[in-house]
Amino acid sequence: MENRKKDFLWGGATSASQAEGNFENNGHSLSVWQMIPYIKLQDRASIPLNFESFTKAWVEEVFENKQGLHYPKRFGSDYYNRWKEDIDLLAEAKLDIYRMSISWSRIYPNGDELEPNQKGLEFYGKVLKYCKEKGIKVMATLSHFETPYPIGKKYGGWMNKQVIDMFVKFAKTCFTEFGDLVDFWVPINEINMTAIVPMMGGASFLEDFPGTSYDQLRFQTLHNQFVGQAKVVQLGHEMLGKKNIGCMIANMTAYPIDCNPVNILEWQKHQQTQRYFYFDMVAKGEYPTYMLKLFEKLKVKIDTNPEEMAILKNNTVDFLSFSYYMSGTVGTTDVQYTSGNLTGTGKNPFLKATEWGWQIDPQGLKYTLNDLWDRYHLPLFISENGMGYDDKLNDKKTVDDDYRIDYLKQHFKAIMDAIDDGADVFGYTMWGVIDLVSGGTNEMSKRYGLVYVDYDDLHNGTGDRFKKKSFYWFKKFQETGEL
Ligand code: P53
């Protein structure tokens, strides 16, 4: 392709909780995300899975493995044992970059230890050195919804400002140990999810803070994470002397359902509160006025001080990274919702959706890149994108995933088009490049990878890896630049 940027980084992404497994050895604690079990589709309706129902008592009673439940994120795709084979596969497919997370639970299992867990450091040291040997650049996430559960249990998670210092300590250890091996850092994955699910994003449970409203909980937990992230940006800049630290935001692109002005106003509010707010915080370093007004309406009072506000202002990120899977619609009238349960997930009659109701919209990626570039003028990186599909291994021990090739082609083309329009985009990592456990549903059967992993939803299987058709397509794309 003519407009293929020469130094653009094409790659894939995973997270520790969804890939590693091996949760009980070598001094590892469980991350908060590993406390959620697999729930069969037919049983899901009977369990109150709205976000406010993520109470600590519920996690402890139902989820501390007392009911013979299966916790897929404690097993992952056995990456902890197969990491070398997996990185060999990434090298064979000619990935330029690999995004992974360093599990906080392996390094400081309780958060408040004075010394890091050596076994955890050894593991990531081996993995990162091997990536370097193979010529694969690395983007490391420090918390991919991976606050250690003991921090939630003992300290109340990120609602407690002591956790900010624990996170900075963890980051300092990672910068010291791995500063030379990691090319780009992302402190907190999808930081905006904390305002939607503070339990998952911040290990903070409402019942630990009597008298606190849910809105207060979610925005205070989020605020403390913004401060923690800014402190990590400051520390990274001082320790590493590079400008290589970015944010990671779940980008919720949505369109107005029609041109009725009331719907345009609703869409504008959505853009502000569900998208720009988060990018504004990390790129401009202060609360936008529309959020301050919203806080007044919601009776949210952020506990902060001038020192914290200065930290936010003075330590903005070097690049913007975000996940982009789909787009939705918003409006006050005539919006029907898809099965995606997040904001702005109204149906769009012009788009097709995956089996999970995620509406496929490559042009929305082009729109998003242009929009973010215009607004922030910071380099952009798509840190997650991809298509979840219940792939089936065929007789030839491969998967004919033409649907995925088609999805990737269209999204790659959208990126190139945005670059052609002038947006500064420097890389892309496809989500779940080697099949792993789904973040939202804990299913293994919601697969994203170029490589199939032989485990089912209950972790039955050999764990063996098989290259899908998309694996060969991606490799060829890297060799020839042909879509
Ligand atoms: P799964 C919700 C909406 C958009 C992205 O999701 C999200 C979520 C939370 O699940 O998360 C990111 O596996 C997340 C990954 C996750 C991926 O999207 O539910 O950073 O960990 O696996 C895809 O299909």
Q: Can you offer a commentary on this structure?
A:
The N and C termini lie close together (7 Å). The strands form 3 sheets. An 8-stranded parallel beta sheet has the order 4-3-2-1-10-9-7-5. Helix 14 runs parallel beside helix 15. It is globular, with a radius of gyration of 21 Å. It is α/β, with parallel strands linked by helices. The chain has helices at residues 16-19, 41-44, 56-63, 79-92, 104-107, 118-133, 149-155, 162-178, 198-202, 214-240, 261-283, 289-298, 306-314, 362-376, 402-421, 469-480; strands spanning 9-13, 97-101, 137-143, 184-188, 246-250, 254-256, 319-323, 328-330, 380-384, 425-431, 451-453, 465-467. It has a single domain (9-480), classed as TIM Barrel, CATH 3.20.20.80. The longest helix is centred in the middle third of the chain and has 27 residues, at 214-240. The mean pLDDT is 93. It is built from 16 helices and 12 strands. Helix content is 40%, strand content 12%. The chain binds 2-(hydroxymethyl)phenyl 6-O-phosphono-beta-D-glucopyranoside (P53). 2-(hydroxymethyl)phenyl 6-O-phosphono-beta-D-glucopyranoside binds next to loops. Keywords: Glycosidase, Hydrolase. Belongs to the glycosyl hydrolase 1 family.
Tally of discrete structural domains: 1
Residue-averaged pLDDT, rounded? 93
Counting helices, strands and paired strands, the structural category is alpha/beta
Q: Indicate the CATH topology.
A: TIM Barrel
Helix-strand pattern: EHHHHEHHEHHEHHEEHHHEEHEHEEEH
Say which molecules are bound, naming each kind only once: 2-(hydroxymethyl)phenyl 6-O-phosphono-beta-D-glucopyranoside
Biggest β-sheet strands, sense, barrel: 8 strands, parallel
DSSP, total strands: 12
